[in-house]
TrEMBL record:
This protein's name: Angiotensin-converting enzyme
Residues that, per the record, bind Zn(2+) 1: 380
Biased amino acid composition, Low complexity: 620-638
Alphabetized Gene3D superfamilies for the sequence: 1.10.1370.30
GO cellular component assignments: plasma membrane
Disulfide bonds: 137-145, 507-526
Keyword 4Fe-4S: no
Family assignment from sequence similarity: Belongs to the peptidase M2 family.
Organism listed in the record: Orchesella cincta
Amino acid sequence: MTTGLEQTENQVLEQTENTEVLSKDEDSAKKLLDKLEQEVHAECQNRAMKEWLYATNLTSENRKAAAESAVSYSRFWKNTWDSIRKYDWRSFKDPIIQRQFKLLSVLGMSILPEEKLRKYNAVKQAMESTYSVAKICSYQERSRCNLTLEPGKPTVLFVEVVSSIAIISLSVLNNVMSHTELSEIFKQSHDPEELKYYWTQWRDLSGKKMRNNFTDMVAIMDLAAKMNNFSDAAEYDVRSYNSPTFRDDIEKIWQQMKPFYEQLHAYVRFKLRKYYGESIVPKKRPIPAHLLGNMWAQTWENVYDLVIPYPNKSAIDVTTKMVEKKLRAHDLAKMAEDFFISLDLSPMPPEFWNGSILEKPIDREIICHARDGANPGFHEAIGDLISISVQTPQHLHAIGLLETVEHDYEADINYLLRTALTKIAFLPYGYLMDLWRWDVYTGKTSSDDLNCNWWKLREKYQGVNPPVQRSEDDFDPGSKFHVASNVAYIRYFVSMILQFQFHESLCIAAGEMHPVFGQGKPLYKCDIYKSKEAGEKLGAMLQMGASRPWEDAMEAITGQRTMDAKAMLDYFDPLMKWLANQNKKNGEFVGWLPSDDVSCIKTPHHASMPVPTGDLNEATLPSTSTTEPPQSPSYSSTTNVLNSSYSLHNGCCIITWYVFTA
């Protein structure tokens, strides 16, 4: 016997079945694609502009316009999809046409009936709004309740390539603006009670308020995934990686990196214990998450001053030099552009300079965070690839941001550790966020274990635990934007691995090192700035866009078709050896035992969750109240990627906007 909700979903699924005789006329298919090229450009540009207006001015009028444009946009793609699925595209001889049809055959969220699509957009907007407008009361002055997560004026850019300057821009702008926002507090404060207060308050006012919305959204995502002919939303989520073993492959790469991470974790825990004491940072246990210099403990560069290996060596301080030079967001964007031009790649178009919001306005609320891109992981790796060269002391000296460069072992270890606090420390977090979502989407994590299973993964993979006990009345994953906005996160893990594979290949092309004998500079000192040879290789890969499988593009630049962490391990090899020696010298336990205290408990209200039978078709903006806990089953979900078939230079990409952070 089926419920009313199951009957409704079955009826919707039946509507997506195609019983027509499929056309094999490849010439007709090509004409259809030519026609769509013009139509897609206009529709995409209009949709992106409505999203842009809402994201840069969170008014109810703009929200309504964005929601309506989403429905209209989905209607367009549904009509397009009806045309696409009339063809037997799998029989086409032209691989480019076949790939275009393959990408267009997955309709994404647009496949939903309009009432469910409206519900999805309303829920998603509510979660984004909850996240973006949350304000915390000051720890020292509880009546002053105006602290937000991000600094007052973070850099916001349209086009992802400018993230090449990431290593400089975000950290420096945070200092230059000197706003006492939450990110700055976690960066500067070493008061464990103050950090615990802000850690808890942020989760109470963001994630905790959106748990109901999240369960509603996931139920809709499950339906959308099945309507797109995927077994569940986890399968849909990783479709762009073209591998049925993708999730297993990611686990293998993590196992490849895990020994290095554990050495880094042990060293940082030892240093933090020396500073805070064993009562706060116990031996052999996970590190309290609020002490790692970041709201989510995803990167640890802000505790560098507490863990620096050789404090007597001169520090790489570009902040002071940038303040002296009075550099602003526009200057940083020009510096990024200069790097790409030095590789003989194209400058930014006028639309970028005329239309970008480079600093957060002070007169209105906006959403300051990264959005979806066409190629998960790949496009993220491109910007980060450039940052590997940009952050080298040699490059910073060359562009006038560093007075002198020290060439000795201790300076190198300091530099590599600082880099590892960003790159290596991030890996388990970059993996476990979507691992948690995949478990939710497939039903492995039930609706009454959402928060506790989150903390099980945080402890297992990352070796951190919460500063205060959590329960199923909380929803800590929602304290991260990518959960609130339904943006896939595994791309950042993939990016971390790919960028070092790319970097190694381009360094060889630039003549910085030998591909076989390892002669020349060590990988961590390579800078491809002004190398036309490296630029030619990079440009050839970028020109492929989404027209070829990502394995082909990767092979064009690296000669390899699979992801491998070897280049990343080679880059950090001197540091890995140093950490192992230090931990042995300090008698530090490598790894961590389970916490003495229970990190998360089930509350009686969440002991058993019934399957919902209510209507999800209501299009009104959901409440963010937490007075009623979620009533939701195990379910499946997916990311908000409606399609991924656009070229780099179309209207959508011009008005896509980015900020320099995961």
